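in:
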């Protein structure tokens, strides 16, 4: 998923689908300075990553954002953030304790 989100155009495609979907690749491409074929490839990468789903609607294939995948990623990032916050707090406490020790004489 993070590999799919690393590309800025893909993030734009995902935002457009999230804000305006369900949309076809042609409808997404009309909002971007890239070709429909490029958008289709980006949408395929996003679908493979589980970030969008697609459904046939007549002759069209429409794409919709899968918020569950982003929710899972946000929960994971929050958990990692909490662990790093704890580590940084311990580091800060150790640095303060070192600063409180009397200076070495020499």
């Amino acid at each position: 998923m993070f590999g799919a989100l690393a590309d800025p155009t893909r993030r734009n495609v995902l935002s457009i689908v999230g804000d305006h979907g369900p949309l076809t690749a042609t409808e997404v491409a009309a909002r971007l300075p890239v070709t429909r074929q490029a958008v289709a490839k980006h949408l395929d990468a996003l679908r493979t990553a589980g970030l969008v789903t697609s459904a046939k609607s007549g002759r069209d294939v429409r794409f919709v954002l899968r918020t569950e995948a982003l929710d899972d990623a946000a929960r994971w990032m929050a958990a990692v953030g909490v662990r790093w916050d704890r580590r940084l707090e311990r580091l800060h406490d150790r640095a303060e304790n070192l600063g409180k020790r009397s200076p070495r004489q020499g």
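note: The mean pLDDT is 92.
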